[in-house]
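hey m, so remember when u said the tokens were messed up on ur end? i reran from scratch. heres the input so u can diff it against urs
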Amino acid sequence: MDTKNKGKYGEDLAVSYLRKKGFEIVERNYRFRKGEIDLITLLNNEVLVFVEVKLRKGDTYGDPETFVSRKQERLIIQAAEDYIFAINWQKDIRFDIISITGSKVEHIEDAFY
């Protein structure tokens, strides 16, 4: 499976997981300049959650979430700020990571900011 298809596969797993947990999927692959947000979700119409999805076959080289760099976090935050401004969001926000290793899905809330 190539990188693009792996990314879509991981995002599809994350979408399924989040929907089961009551999240509404608002956007997928939102881009702003050099930044991209994998998923933008809404929880209980109160919290806008920006989600980075990381997928690995195994944990030989570390857990998937450890591959979110500080630079990537900054780019995600910049994209989120653009999105928040564009829709005039006035409520809470959060940055989460969905870490997928094999068939194990881990949801890390408030992963960064």
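this time it looks ok to me. The longest strand covers residues 23-32. if urs says something different then somethings off w ur setup not the seq
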